[in-house]
Amino acid sequence: MRASDGLAFRGSMPLAIALAAALSFNALPIAPALAAGNAPGAVARGPEGGGGPSDARLASASMPGGQDAAPPAPERLSLWSGRAPVGDGGSEAADASITVHRPALGTATGAAIVICPGGGYGGLVSGPEGHGIAGWLTGHGIAGIVLEYRLPKGRPFVPLLDAQRAIRTVRTNAQKWGIDPARIGIIGFSAGGHLASTAGTHFDGGEPQAADPIQRASCRPDFVILVYPVVTMGAKTHGGSKRNLLGPDPKPEMVDLFSNEKQVTGQTPPMFLAHAQDDKTVPADHSRMLHETLKAHHVATEYLELPSGGHGLDGYKGPMWDAWQSAALEWLAGQKMIR
After folding, report:
1. Which superfamily is assigned to 2-334 in CATH?
2. Percentage of the residues of the chain whose pLDDT score is greater than 70
3. What SS3 class is residue 91?
């Protein structure tokens, strides 16, 4: 671990590069009024959040005179057409959706990231941890795909099925949306981080014989970004997230199955993690445990431990928020996921 100015990195990223990036990206804060909505269990829906940090210089550099074409309008798609699986062979009259935010013409890197907002599996903080993140990503040439997943209510496979379906849908539409099907990742915050880490440890290569072409695509993400994530369902878990996901009295095998630090293999995709040391809601041990397990399985991983910010990193603004974003972009470039 190397540290400077209170930022601690575990992994291979040069610290000087990450700190320089944090100063150069000129991040803009997400609307402070939404800060209170981030605690697990908080319910906040819809695109009411302000945009995340973006670098207008990236967009303006691609056209003479600093002008660039406007990005395509966001496109909202149903994932299940009104009849969604629940994980036990049955289905329900329900749906999940994705909203596809694509970068402006001339700025696209070809990468895309499915975004899983937090909310303790009891709601979705889809403003600052959803559409706001999409705005930041598109500002850096990355398509942001906001996932509005179904809440589990004790049915743990329900959100995972939605996340897997979202990845398959992006991969199936990659050519249409100008995306490289080998550079599709997933990002999650808090309980959304648990969902993203679940998608990164529970995946398949698709069903070649499926009648539905989307189900033929792989649901393995090519990389994973986790920000103050819930990871374990064990002793150090976040109680509300566990209860909402697994129910009041889960079987031990289900606790283990959804404790994602126990589900890492050599096939797990590369992961970037960021967590504040003073997070009292979801302790940094969640990220530490997963990072150490990834290293033990020789999976590429970077962990940024922030000295302060708590859960939600000071309401999605300020130096700690800027630091994880800058470091994540540097990591993505190092993984050759963006250019």
Report:
1. Alpha/Beta hydrolase fold, catalytic domain (3.40.50.1820)
2. 80
3. strand
Residues in the chain: 339
Tokens of 77: 């798609």
Query: CA 216 to CA 209: how far, in whole Å?
Result: 7
Given strand 97-101, what is the order of strands in its sheet?
A: 2-4, 7-10, 301-306, 271-276, 224-227, 184-189, 112-116, 143-148, 97-101, 75-78
pLDDT at position 69 is 76
DSSP state of 49: S
75: which strand partners?
A: 100
Q: Which amino acid is at 160?
A: L
Quick one: average pLDDT of 162-175? 98
Q: Which two tokens stand for residue 84?
A: 């969604």
CA 31, CA 162: separation in Å to the nearest integer? 28
